[in-house]
Design goal:
The complex is a heterodimer of chains A (about 725) and B (about 70). Chain A is built from 21 helices and 23 strands. With about 725 residues, chain A is α+β, with helices and mostly antiparallel strands. Chain A folds into five domains: about 15-170, Rossmann fold (3-Layer(aba) Sandwich); about 180-230 and about 490-605, Topoisomerase I, domain 2; about 235-295 and about 420-485, Topoisomerase I, domain 3 (Distorted Sandwich), CATH 2.70.20.10; about 300-415, Orthogonal Bundle (Topoisomerase I, domain 4), CATH 1.10.290.10; about 615-720, no CATH class. The termini of chain A are far apart. Chain B has a domain at about 30-70. Chain B has about 70 residues and is mainly α. The chains are: A alpha+beta (about 725), B mainly alpha (about 70). The interface of A and B includes residues 228, 231, 234, 485 and 539 of A.
């Protein structure tokens, strides 16, 4: 009997390894699962894991750092095509990834003495693949025997529930979809980038990496088409009637019933007819407008709102949301869902928010009793819409985090408010055969705007005190000429929306695709104007291998990969398709390697000229000033091209931080060439002679005085306190 | 193959301009009709001058106008 108890006990007590995606997530999981809430962090060199006790079991919570393993080509050689790959530790492929080596070594060592594995990485295709690869190659564990923790927030309750009720097997459909996506993107990226780079090398001898990929190609085509439409735009004139009315000593703007007049003669005629005339109030109509709360946030809607209100790029919003998620303040942000499912404990979240600055709103909602949120149409089987957890952060949020958190909380609270009601009033005024409007708008019931107000564009407008039959004197009237506007430049938010609409990339990758258009030098600045390199790439590929720019193939590929997720297709089928298509593209490429290389070299020359050359040297008058980086110190400065041949020693110092681009203008103070410096979110213009320029010295002096004044007033305030 | 007199890119078929400046030139000619209708009466030269002053005229269109004015061409 004693022996049996002992065996039972041995069977029950076990060492379980939980694999998480990041150190912060690992710590949260360990804190949530440890029976005393005080897990032990076991450190080994620069890596660590957390050890905790739960119901007699020992839990080892290890972490990855995103991907610990990467794809590497099996057949050697920096050439193309290369289709065969293997998974290897990331540090063997990327020099910069040396920090993952101690983590892999530690996981390998600790996992030897483990009875079972649970994967607790993010529940999406990327997270599932990270968990699978870490388990298979890092722990040498059997994926078929591992369990899966599924959760959408890192709160204690969710984590305990996920641990107590794990999925009995890994999500192999997601793993397969993630695996396929990695392979497809690797095969595309590596082969096309090498083809472009080697074409340049063949023509010029330069080794300059010019990259493209499965989604970047079609993205470049969209950018080029929009840029082309803007550059070849011819505006057309039209006229707008601007009139002022006067009644009971009150003056107000009158809105002409036609927003736009296409013929100049018609505009002139209206002005001539109504000079000194008066209008009669024909009718006043009231209408109640009902506006329901906006639907819950998914990632793209959050990114769009954060760009609109705070100017945050989609990648920045994603990074901040990810941080808020790891702090257990919000749910998992990489979601397409616009729904708050019934399984979410809304009452608990609202109770949590009662202890925050949102207390007033949370109390109002709780007082109603019935907690039914507004829902959107889109669903995501893996995660609900982004919502707060109701938890309070121990420390303070950064200003950017506070902004994103605020908009998420307010949006969530707004879901439980009633619709807003507004009264819209329109007075119709007749002047001869012409019709004018006067409009008013006022809130009757604020509803959800009470809480989401800071993020709505709404201005109340009072209708002047007029009644039907009143006479309104037209005191001024003009027909002002305007021009049709060109198509708008893309911004990070609109480009991301386009990619989503065209089903290119995923919710997790689109933000980085948007960023890469700028970082690779294909576009300039936030407006996504195509650079000469971007045009060269677009033209050359369009002429010789247009398939790279086509969105059709990559879209059909996305659909195939979606099918894997649904169990209707498999990795082999998709890879066969990719290899077949890519082999054709690469054969075409090889046949046109020389003209492709020539086109790209021309583009690169133009790009370097535009981004590095400032213009004629003011000292020798022969050479060209350009931005040069010292091979010894790595520091940049402005130097003359005649330094070697003509002995011109003209140099100017440059700021070492930020992106510098030459401007096509001269300094008004010293006539030297101007440059633009963009560092972080700050951008300023200065001349290359800034350290000696008389105009800049005044600026520097003013700035120093301003700083001195500000520090004096700070001191005074401190003393007074 | 001839070079575009504005940017040096290869010219497009029978046109003396590259694909971009050719597109801008074509657009310039097509929209002239709309300007004539809108203004009642406007000469080609006044049209070009107005476009140089107008908001939103594309960069390639401006380059084509400058070329036309310089060359005295249409």
């Amino acid at each position: 009997m004693k022996l049996l108890n002992c065996i039972e006990r041995r069977d029950k007590l076990s060492r379980v390894m939980i694999i998480s995606e990041k150190p912060t997530a690992a710590k949260r999981i360990a804190e949530a699962l440890d029976q005393n809430g005080t897990p032990k962090e076991v450190k080994s060199r620069s890596a660590s894991y957390f050890e905790c006790e739960r119901n007699g079991d020992t839990l080892i919570v290890a972490y990855a750092l995103g991907h610990l393993f990467e794809l590497r080509q099996i057949v050697k050689g920096w050439t193309y095509p290369r289709f065969e790959t293997e998974w290897v530790p990331k540090y063997e492929v990327q020099k910069k990834a040396a920090n993952v080596k101690p983590i892999i070594n530690l996981i390998k060592r600790v996992s030897k003495d483990v009875d079972s594995f649970i994967v607790a990485t993010d529940f999406d295709i990327e997270g599932s693949l990270i968990g699978y690869l870490t388990l298979k190659y890092g722990c040498k564990g059997d994926p078929a025997r591992a369990k899966r923790m599924v959760f959408s927030t890192l709160t204690q309750a969710d984590l305990v529930h996920a641990y107590e009720n794990p999925s009995p097997s890994l999500d192999f459909a997601m793993i397969e979809a993630g695996h396929t996506r990695h392979l497809v993107d690797w095969i595309y990226g590596i082969n096309l980038t090498r083809a472009l780079t080697l074409a340049i090398k063949k023509v010029s001898g330069w080794f300059k990496i010019v990259s493209t990929g499965r989604v970047q190609g079609p993205t470049l085509a969209y950018l080029a088409e929009r840029d082309g439409a803007i550059n070849s735009f011819v505006p057309v004139p039209f006229w707008v009637i601007n009139a002022k009315g006067k009644h009971a000593r009150q003056e107000f703007d009158l809105e002409y019933s036609k927003k736009r007049i296409d013929l100049k003669a018609e505009g002139v005629q209206i002005v001539d007819d109504l000079q000194g005339a008066s209008a009669v109030v024909d009718s006043i109509n009231k209408k109640t407008v009902k506006q329901t709360p906006p639907v819950p946030f998914n990632l793209s809607a959050l990114q769009s709102e954060c760009y609109r209100h705070f100017g945050f790029k989609p990648s920045r919003t994603l990074a901040i949301a990810q941080k808020l998620y790891l702090d257990a303040l919000i749910s998992y942000p990489r979601t397409s869902s616009q729904k708050i499912p019934e399984s979410i404990d809304i009452k608990k979240i609202l109770s949590g928010l009662q202890a925050t600055k949102y207390s007033k709103f949370a109390q109002t909602i709780l007082a109603k009793g019935k907690l039914v949120p507004v829902q959107g149409d889109k669903d995501d089987p893996a995660h609900p819409a982004i919502h707060p957890t109701g938890s309070k952060k121990a420390g303070r949020l950064t200003p950017s985090e506070s902004k994103v958190y605020d908009i998420i909380v307010r949006r969530f609270l707004a879901l439980f408010y009633e619709a807003s009601l507004k009264e819209s009033v329109r007075a119709d005024l007749k002047a001869k055969e012409y019709l004018f409007y006067l409009r008013g708008l006022k809130t009757i019931v604020p509803g959800w705007i009470e809480v989401y107000g800071p993020y709505t564009a709404f201005t109340e407008k009072e209708l002047p005190s007029i009644d039907s039959g009143d006479n309104v004197e037209i005191v001024a009237i003009t027909a002002d000429d305007k021009f049709t506007p060109p198509p708008a430049h893309f911004n990070p938010s609109s480009l991301l929306k386009l990619l989503e609409k065209e089903n290119l990339g995923t919710k997790a990758t689109r933000a980085s695709i948007v960023d890469s258009a700028i970082s690779r030098g294909y576009t300039l600045g936030e407006k996504f104007e195509l650079s000469s390199l971007g045009y060269a790439l677009y033209e050359t590929l369009g002429e010789h291998v247009p398939a790279i720019l086509s969105s059709e193939f990559t879209r059909s590929l996305e659909n195939e990969m979606e099918k894997i997720l649904e169990g209707e297709s498999d990795r082999e089928t998709v890879l066969e398709l990719v290899k077949e298509e890519l082999q054709e593209i690469l054969d075409d490429f090889r046949a046109h390697e020389e003209p492709i290389g020539e086109g790209l070299v021309r583009g690169l020359r133009g790009y370097w000229q535009a981004s590095e050359e400032l213009g004629q040297c003011p000292k020798c008058g022969v050479g060209t000033l350009s931005i040069i980086r010292s091979p010894k110190s790595g520091k940049r400065f402005v130097g003359c091209s005649q330094y070697k041949e003509g002995g011109c020693d003209q140099t100017f110092p440059l700021p070492q931080k930020g992106r510098i681009s030459p401007l096509d203008k001269q300094c008004p103070h010293c006539s030297h060439h101007m440059i633009k410096v963009v560092s972080g979110r700050r951008a300023w213009e200065t001349c290359v002679n800034w350290s000696a320029c008389p105009g800049r010295q005044e600026d520097i002096k003013t700035l120093q005085e301003k700083r001195a004044r500000s520090s004096k007033s700070d001191l005074k305030e401190e003393k007074e306190q | 193959m001839t070079e575009c007199p504005i940017c040096g890119r290869s010219s497009l078929g029978p046109s003396k301009f590259c694909r971009y400046h050719d597109a801008a030139h074509t657009e310039l000619q097509e929209v002239f009709g709309q300007w004539q209708k809108a203004m009642g009466d406007i000469s080609w030269n006044d049209y070009l001058e107005s476009l140089l002053e107008a908001d939103g005229t594309g960069v390639w269109v401006i380059e084509v106008i400058d070329y036309i004015k310089l060359e005295g061409n249409s």
